[in-house]
């Protein structure tokens, strides 16, 4: 026994030495808390005085310093973060009840406005130096809960709306964000930085935004939990937009519970975003955390869309992994309705769905409105942004990546006949597609791998949750997505949480080249 303990100690020291020499693996200050703490564990450590918010923040600043040169997940660190952590610690002396986010460092995608020393640029140099009128509503909610605003996370520039040639996770300000599991693999976008940072434990949690796939996809490939809320559940005011009809703000966490704790704080009605007033009826009085139930799969009716989603190579690792998951879902009491099909799915997933047409016109209107509200800004219109990119073509890598999506949008003239037809087509595709299917089979959720379902969720403003589901042989992660009808977050959270607890797939990043 004694000698084997001795051997273990030597091996542990060797591993430590090797890790210290490796560039990618950060050593961190020793604290009374495990390496990847959950929000609940942190709050317990706070309460028992094993840890305070200032110490926790130092740990995250340390990890950002070590890992960010490799991962490029963070554009800016908040110079006031230490001050906020200190205030949170002082408040603990006098107060007794706290939000679960009190003293917790949270990162924001760089399209989410803060009225402080941080810039809000959607990754573009064109917005550097702009001054926003106020914090985004979701940031106001985070601050009210006592969260520490850690900084801004990288993204696909303009949330992926500049050009199809722009690589996911790349922006002129942030450079190329990298997947912490396999550095050469895509981190996906557009909320790449928030997903990478949470995966690599450079923040406890982060906010991203999704118009079509921008939370679900990076969550899937970076092996974190991402919640894309129903449109209107979270306010978009103060967020650099693509389309008020499809945009939604949602959390990333390493666990379903962490993401849900953040969701509970950021949902709510905002007079500056009318969609939130209509969606407020969906918000449960006692919060979403009540739906973190171990038996959450019991009696849930889950629709499996095989074709084209589960067509992997025969006998592939993924096929085996998902077949295993289906067994687990059944074992935990879910009723699987297999081999379902959404009507006109190929049309929904194609360029002909009307989505591109509508988004082009909506982006111009929404962006111009956002820019016109800024207190100061180098650009006031989409036309200014396009001209800026031409003037700064080197820094914005214009010849490599272009700005086709921006110029196509600039050429639109509002919501005219063509756009109205596109909007009508999308609402019909939703009504006779996913809505009809879910009602016919009385489904609680649809189950799909990765992020291929996102156009369906996007055009109808439907919610989805991505949970880690496995890893390819080469180490690249993949997720499982549970999607549902508007306002079905309570059910989706029950399903996602019970699945996560039954499988516990996520493991820390491997930093493979
Ligand atoms: C946080 O904890 C550290 C270590 O115990 C201590 O030095 C520091 O004063 C604490 N900070 C606050 C604001 O309580
Ligand atoms: C915001 O951008 C300006 C201009 O580049 C820079 O000087 C400043 O440091 C940035 N703010 C933060 C918090 O990084
Ligand atoms: C919200 O709706 C009201 C009433 O229809 C309208 O006057 C107002 O301009 C809308 N606000 C926004 C931010 O869209
Ligand atoms: C897998 O094998 C079955 C039976 O041989 C075949 O019908 C099916 O088309 C194959 N699927 C793929 C994706 O190769």
Automatic annotation (TrEMBL):
The keyword Electron transport is annotated on this UniProt entry: no
Gene3D superfamilies: Amidase signature (AS) domain
Pfam families: Amidase
Superkingdom of the organism of origin: Eukaryota
Record keywords, A-Z: Signal
Sequence ranges assigned to domain Amidase in this UniProt record: 56-456
Signal peptide limits: 1-26
Identification of the protein by name: Amidase domain-containing protein
Organism: Stephania japonica
InterPro entries registered for this protein in UniProt: Amidase_dom (IPR023631), AS_sf (IPR036928)
PANTHER family hit by this protein: AMIDASE, OS04G0183300 PROTEIN
